[in-house]
Amino acid sequence: MTNTQVSLIQLDNYGPWTTTPEPRREVDLQTLQSRLFADIAQLVGARDGYAFFGRFDNIVAVTNGLDRGEHERIQGSLGNRYPVTASVSIASGDTPAGALGIASRRLQDAGSAQDSGRREILSGDPLPDADRGPDDVQIAHFDVDDATGKYTDQLNEFDTFIQIEQGYAALMKHMREAHDSLSFFVGGDNVIAVCSAMDEAAYRDAIDHVRERVGVELKVGVGRARTAQSAGMTAKHELERCREDGTAVELGW
Ligand SMILES: Nc1nc2c(ncn2[C@@H]2O[C@H](COP(=O)(O)OP(=O)(O)OP(=O)(O)O)[C@@H](O)[C@H]2O)c(=O)[nH]1
């Protein structure tokens, strides 16, 4: 069984801020969003968590091992350095989607994302140390098979992008619906999924599903560990094993 701790980081009242007193230059918003994500990735990553850029105004992080004080410091650091603040909601559960559902509901109950009175909420509780186990986090690192040969070196960049995004869309939907797992595009041809306790057959099924739906061929390495960083690193090594052995699924246990 997995026990994933998820933190939802949601910018406070960001929509109105982007248009007040008049619409802000898009290039400035893009810069702010990418810097803010870079900082969150570093702050969470320094404590062995993973952060995913998602929609940029809502960032989902896997934070097993981060306590409440560490969340407070991340929130404070953002508030000190950016013209916007963030609310953070922490929850855990045996599936990542279940945990994110609880975290989301807590923030929604505290007020709308566009409520000027809701600011820097920190809600929910991290997993107590006593409840943490060695296999709490399961991370799957998916990669498109030979994306360079099939797409990057063949098609124009936008048509390549469509292929990769279609593979991502089919995968993320299947993982969410069949396994309560959360998949995030992380660049290039890579998708990292935070998973429930899926077995090898379930990964093969996910890969078959994407091939049948959109004709994109995937391979996946999977790791389990106490933290996202450690599970994610195992997943990367297992993906290398797929490359070496020509296999589609490799599990690190
Ligand atoms: N975020 C992230 N991106 C990666 C990683 N590895 C590769 N990429 C990206 O994915 C692109 C394609 O690289 P590969 O997946 O190695 O290339 P490929 O042609 O699909 O070859 P095979 O994966 O060996 O089938 C690279 O240009 C990078 O942008 C990774 O571990 N993390």
From TrEMBL:
Ranges for region Disordered: 108-134
Pfam families from the UniProt entry: GCH_III (PF05165)
Gene Ontology MF, one: GTP cyclohydrolase IIa activity
UniProt entry keywords in alphabetical sequence: GTP-binding, Hydrolase, Nucleotide-binding
Record-stated family: Belongs to the archaeal-type GTP cyclohydrolase family.
Function per UniProt: Catalyzes the formation of 2-amino-5-formylamino-6-ribofuranosylamino-4(3H)-pyrimidinone ribonucleotide monophosphate and inorganic phosphate from GTP. Also has an independent pyrophosphate phosphohydrolase activity.
Protein name per Swiss-Prot or TrEMBL: GTP cyclohydrolase III
Species, as recorded: Haloarcula saliterrae
